[in-house]
Amino acid sequence: MERRPVVVVGAGPAGLTVGSILRAAAVDCVVLETESREFIETRPRAGVIEEGAVRGLERRGLAAGLLARAQVHDACEFRFGGERYRFRYCELTGRHHYVYPQPLLVTDLVREYADVRGGDIRFGVREVRLNDLETDRPSVSYLCPETGERRVVHCDFVAGCDGARGVSREAVPARLARRDYGIGWLALLAEAPPSADRVVFGVHPRGFAGHMARSPEVTRYYLQCAPGDDLENWPHERVWAELRARLGAAGARPLAESRLIEKRVLDMHNYVVSSLVFGRLFLAGDAAHPTAPIAAKGMNLALHDAFLLGDALVAFLTGGDPDGLAGYSAACLRRAWDYQEFSEWLSGIYHGTASGDPYHAATTLARLRRLFTSPAAARAFAEQYLGAADAC
Question: Is the pTM of this model over 0.85?
Answer without folding.
Answer: yes
